[in-house]
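DATA SHEET
Item: assembly model
Revision: 1
Owner: S.N.
Input lines:
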Amino acid sequence: MRSPASNETTPLRVVPRPTRVTTGETVLRLSGDFSIDIDNSSSLKSSIPRDLEQAIHHTTATLHKNRHRYLSPQRGAEFLISGTQHTEIQKLILSLNGNGKPRSIAHDAVLPVEDRVAAERYELELATDGSAHIEADTSLGLYRGLTTFQQLFFYSGGKDGFQYTPHAPINIEDQPAFGWRAVLLDTSRNWFGEEALLKMLDTMALIKMNVFHWHITDSNSWPLGLDDFPELAGKGAYSPEEVYQQKQIQKIVLYANARGIDVVPEIDMPGHTAIIAESHPELIAGYQRTPFVKYAHQPPAGQLRFADDKVTEWTKGLLQSAVTVFSSPYFGTGGDELNTTCMMEDEETATTLKSKGWTLEKALDNFTEQTHAVVRANKKTPLVWQEMVLTHGDLPSVKKDTLVSIWIDSKDAAKVLAKGFRIVHAAADYFYLDQGQGGWLGEEGGGDSWQGPYKSWQKMYSFDPYKDVEEGKRKLVMGGQCSLWAEQTDETNLETVLWPRAAAVAELFWTGAGAEGYPRSSVEAFPRMHDVRFRMVDRGVRAIPLQPYWSALRPGTTNK
Amino acid sequence: MRSPASNETTPLRVVPRPTRVTTGETVLRLSGDFSIDIDNSSSLKSSIPRDLEQAIHHTTATLHKNRHRYLSPQRGAEFLISGTQHTEIQKLILSLNGNGKPRSIAHDAVLPVEDRVAAERYELELATDGSAHIEADTSLGLYRGLTTFQQLFFYSGGKDGFQYTPHAPINIEDQPAFGWRAVLLDTSRNWFGEEALLKMLDTMALIKMNVFHWHITDSNSWPLGLDDFPELAGKGAYSPEEVYQQKQIQKIVLYANARGIDVVPEIDMPGHTAIIAESHPELIAGYQRTPFVKYAHQPPAGQLRFADDKVTEWTKGLLQSAVTVFSSPYFGTGGDELNTTCMMEDEETATTLKSKGWTLEKALDNFTEQTHAVVRANKKTPLVWQEMVLTHGDLPSVKKDTLVSIWIDSKDAAKVLAKGFRIVHAAADYFYLDQGQGGWLGEEGGGDSWQGPYKSWQKMYSFDPYKDVEEGKRKLVMGGQCSLWAEQTDETNLETVLWPRAAAVAELFWTGAGAEGYPRSSVEAFPRMHDVRFRMVDRGVRAIPLQPYWSALRPGTTNK
């Protein structure tokens, strides 16, 4: 057996690292007419879901197109002794367990988060005689197996280049530890076009991420083009071209679902809504009020007048219109960074509160109750930020099935869990991709970003999802995500900010503790991170280098 | 007069801000058949240098292609009242002062650094009747004026889009405060292809940077393809494709010179040379010795056996071969981070020192004396890092005309100036572009980069080149540069790491203290930085956004 480089626990360079792996050292090559087939006895044979069929075509094409070479000083030549006849892999056979009409990948991509772990399970076998097989209970599981299969192969280079794997026989049993492995992208502060989003979804799929938390609107621009509310984007988008039209969103969602990715939209409210004032000034308190630092976390100030019944009614209509555009079982209503000064100094709000005899919290509770009712009436579960549970007292409107994202500090997870809510880890001290680009508010001399330095992939990878979480509460941890708030990011640097860092988050929440426990070792993961980075580059993604190329070729030489 | 937004000192959004500017508020548009001509009385009329002629063509084409719009909520529509007939600019006339055969841009790009300031001087006039004129003493000065002229214009948008300037009449008298305004790029740790370098030079020219400090070799790879030493790149480059062949280098140098940029090469020695061992193992002490942390600042360890006469002779040959490839009056020989343990534990070096009765410092002095003699014999001045003056005692070999770059700490500038050397500011605490990407040496949990957080453009801009510099020493400050060490940078993120940050450095060292004194105000500069960033993006450069687009359109709203 070839030993893995440095302290790798597997010589496979598959990201995320599969749960259970055995490998050998036989080199197999992919036949020039390699193809992917369905097992004759499988229910897929008679009725294959369209998205799985497309995934099969895509996998075959991707394998033949691959030009990524093994990262070692000899670029893999050590496996390819001249004159050796390597056994060829002619076919990869897919089998779906069970009977009944197979469900599509897209169908299972939007299962409730707890059901995703089982649905993503697959087994992969690659024998030394070249026979190859993936088995799963779902199309989604087969899709995950196809993704792993791609990462087993390296390009030989040379004039008759071919694809080979140096690690046969390979046996993999794999499933994620967590059902929520997400990227959040904020598309309000700066604009990202459809092409950039689709490419991001492709790269997420490569590393088996399964949730795109789409923070679609905020105070800076309103790119959400809803058929029933055209004026919102009409006056609130950066330009007529910088709008996601409703049909286009549905296309993006379908594209994501077919790759096993749930698109969870978020319309953050009642804060983070200032731009609504461009089309509906009467709905917003304190629009562009200055000094902004008193009335908002960042300019422009302005929040929904959520104490006002008319505003609540309008918001319910908006939500009813938005919710149906998305296939996700979840809908994000935000709830972070509510600025109370902005509300209390708003004359109309003050008058309303007085006439109703309400506190601001009571008004928020009423607003939440009514808006969440729209989400629930559409058979969806609300997703909120931690303040909705920790900051405004115990609001009865926030029902216990609500998903709560932790963002301010990872220590806050325990507090939310103590109240019995399910959580998603997204804390700024580990998972904020936007940090470390320098302060962006104008000031003499600048400074570091507000939440401290750049979060390296190693830092993200060192996170323990169960830190301070008692045994009985662990089942409430749904998973985690890295978040890209877009103050200093647009299409020019989306990929360099996101990749390959997010792959560390993908692996952390797919693999879980593994046999080694938490924290996972970033030193052990380094060779895989290099490999997946260069695989991304081979696919045209601007994933940044993690070390000098000299070091990338020599795992284990460049540690502290 | 329209007042400039926020606290801008000029409404012009030209980067670097010109030294003396007056503006008005007449809108002029560029004629559809706008052209650039030579003044009839100018010596250029009979003999125009080829590179100036090309710059004229390029400027005309760039002006017509421009799609960059004015950054304001109305995107410049406030200047373009419908139905108004804007006077057209038909021609821009260039005049070269003096008689005699005009020199090329390239000629003056490689003047001694003290002579550059006068050579880059120009005057620009744009009258309300549409007449436009640039006057200078050199082709290089005219070139700088052409660059400014481009930045005066914005695209109108609309179906019959045109270029206009809202600020006529405009009078500019401009020249740089410092003759060294550089970007350093390390092309050894990771590879950058020719196309990426040429594009970088174009962007440098846009902001009037005038030195490309090319740290071409280091310990990780040897991409320098010299006709006389083919084995160095043959065995030391990352691949046969990742080599700058000698002819290709000359093409790159010419391309730079024609844009007013001096390419100052650097072969860092005697440290930072480990990779030479791949082709000449006998020249290198301690190649790949571990633990690297004992023998080098980063892997792989290995340094020239500089005490050895044969090594010195070989190095002289190498320098003679390399020096002639470049047109610069300067040649960098490095001299930073010499690891003494690596040398003292090298048996051959120890034996040599003993037999000669030399200390390591004496050996270094001899090596420097002899290698610098080659540089000087070719009529070039050596450029070294600060350790050559501060760390090894006063080496007589380091002559007082040597240029010394400050890198470890900006406070070290005063120490080097005290010894009477000319300096270039390149200190890590202000000007290291690579910082803030997280630690890159493998370690559990990762960490921040070695020299602290990301250096924001505001931080760079806040630098005072004369801090702690007594009046009499100021003439020894040649200028400054930002440095991009490439541990975590290659072509995927070159532009996002470099742009637009380096524009702040360009402006700082072009403008000098200005009327406002040091430190320059980054708040005042913000609107220009936004503008030049979007201008870069319009030219296909992945310069990163500095704020939400909402803020970029509204200068002054988003300050602390």
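QC remark: The first strand of chain A starts at residue 20 and ends at 22.
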